[in-house]
Write a structure and sequence with these properties.
Strand order of the largest sheet of chain B: 1-4
Number of domains of chain A: 2
Low-confidence stretches of chain B: 91-96, 267-286
Low-confidence stretches of chain A: none
Helix content of chain A: over 70%
Mean pLDDT of chain A: 86
Number of helices of chain A: 9
Structural class of chain A: mainly alpha
CATH topology of the largest domain in chain B: Alpha-Beta Plaits
Strand content of chain B: 5-15%
Number of helices of chain B: 11
Shape of chain B: elongated
Radius of gyration of chain A: 17 Å
Strand content of chain A: under 5%
Mean pLDDT of chain B: 81
Oligomer: heterodimer
Distance between the termini of chain A: 12 Å
Largest sheet of chain B: 2 strands, antiparallel
């Protein structure tokens, strides 16, 4: 499998937020401002790659014992612990990065897109390197969706042209649906 | 045997992770400001972001760095948490000039006329959407108590159709001011005891028709003031908090009683009872 194909496929065609509808909570919650959207996106890339790096070998161990069905619970355990560990390490060694990402890291623990990408890597039968590329691409796709959406929200939130009944969450959901439809156009690219 | 392997394996993974995290928390320990960690311990930890900061940690560090952020921002913790935060910050927060909420309306049931009988949802926001509320004056207090419900200190009450602030209890957090759909409440220095209790910008005749306690913009107060503190703009009197000396001359001169001198209590029943009890021992200690 070509790495570029994996990368393009996961960023555009099978975008985690807009095509697979995973990680919707931070997508709607943290996209109000561009800088926090970018911060969240970068934190997600970081955690996704790390989580894949940790869970892929663990899956081998699980398979060796013949308990692959415990995948979900073990992965959640590992992702949560990993995020905690990363947060502590960042706080100690790179305080500036911790300040930028710190708020988002605990939120990512419960982001289903992270768990989703780990499980997809196994299901697709990717090898270790392909898994890492796929995770990186998934994170970039998330970042892309966040940035586009926060740009749209900057124009739409508090816009007096929006009818009163649509202000707030309704118009945000409608916008997200339209953006998702636009991404359907990438279908068949890869 | 078949159940034993997965159980043991998951327990083993959990145990290893726990050990790693415990060791990591010792190795990566970063000393933090004690005030901030104390503040953080008092916050509920819901990380809901309702305070306007990104989570409890962020609020605690912002509060630790600058107490003027306000201790009443956490709606989850409510009054208890706000009081505890203030206690922790107590010494440092003392230097800031105390602020209180001021209700810029005195249109009680007797004074202000109504256009209709409002029978909808009993909140000010809902009433305001219904043709601007039931009062003839579109600027005044709607009297349905949105402020009363939002106040974590119980410092604002609706008495006789208009909100009244118990100044002893009020901390000036501004939650009531943010809630009021008519923007009747403003946050002002507590030292100013003479306040204009009307903010209707309607012309004098219209105001007089709607409410007998409203400011009609006659400028008698402006002439009475010896310190040039009172100005009538947009048909309503404004008192400059810097220039005002609390003499109360303008309040005496006002033909409609729109200016209230709080030093000479006009309506002794206005403030809730516990406020006076709280005041009395404080004086005795002094």
């Amino acid at each position: 499998m070509n790495y570029l194909t994996i990368l393009l496929g996961i960023i555009l065609v099978n975008n985690y937020v807009l095509a697979q509808f995973l990680g919707i909570c931070p997508f709607l919650g943290v996209s109000k401002k561009l800088d926090s959207a970018v911060g969240m996106g970068i934190a997600v890339i970081f955690v996704m790659v790390l989580a894949t790096a940790a869970t892929w070998p663990i899956m081998r161990v699980l398979n060796n014992f013949g308990i692959g069905y415990l995948q979900t619970i073990v992965f959640i355990l590992i992702i949560a612990a990993l995020v905690q560990f990363v947060e502590m390490a960042l706080k100690k060694f790179i305080p500036s990065l911790h300040k930028a990402l710190g708020v988002f890291l605990p939120l990512i623990t419960t982001n289903c897109a992270v768990l989703g990408v780990c499980i997809t890597n196994i299901d697709e039968g990717y090898n270790y390197l392909e898994s890492l590329v796929n995770s990186f691409g998934a994170g970039v796709g998330f970042l892309l969706a966040m940035v586009i959406f926060s740009g749209m929200r900057a124009k739409i939130d508090d816009n007096p042209a929006v009818p009163k009944a649509f202000q707030g969450s309704p118009i945000v959901l409608v916008t997200a649906a339209l953006l998702s439809l636009a991404f359907m156009g990438f279908g068949g690219l890869v | 045997m078949s159940i034993l392997t997965p159980v043991l394996l998951v327990v083993a993974i959990g145990f290893v992770l726990a050990v790693i995290l415990t060791i990591a928390s010792k190795i990566f320990f970063v000393p933090v400001d004690e005030t901030v960690s104390n503040l953080r311990a008092e916050l509920p930890g819901a990380n809901c972001g309702a305070c306007g900061f990104a989570g409890c940690d962020d609020y605690a560090s912002a509060l630790g760095a600058d107490p003027s952020v306000g201790t009443a921002k956490c709606p989850v913790g409510g009054a208890d948490v706000a009081a505890k935060l203030a206690e922790i910050l107590g010494v440092e927060a003392g230097s800031a000039e105390p602020q209180v909420a001021v209700v810029m309306c005195n249109g009680n049931k007797e004074a202000s006329k109504t256009l209709m009988e409002y029978q909808g949802l009993s909140t000010c926001v809902a009433a305001k959407q219904m043709f601007g509320g039931s009062n003839m004056c579109s600027h005044g207090c709607l009297g349905l108590g949105d402020c009363e419900r939002t106040c974590p200190y119980g410092a604002i009450k609706v008495c006789d159709g208009v909100a009244v602030v118990a100044r002893e209890l009020c901390v000036g957090c501004g939650m009531c001011a943010a809630q009021c759909p008519n923007k009747v409440i403003r946050i002002a220095p507590a030292k100013n005891k003479v306040v204009v209790q009307c903010h209707s910008t309607d012309a004098g005749a219209k105001t007089r028709k709607a409410c007998s306690n409203g400011c009609i913009g006659c400028k008698k107060c402006e002439k009475a003031c010896k310190f040039e503190a009172v100005k009538v703009e947009n048909n309503v009197a404004m008192i400059d908090p810097e220039k005002c000396k609390n003499c109360g001359l303008c309040a005496k001169e006002c033909p409609t009683g729109a200016i209230n001198n709080m030093r000479a209590k006009r309506k002794p029943a206005a403030a809730p009872a516990p406020a006076k009890e709280a005041e009395a021992p404080a004086k005795a200690e002094a």
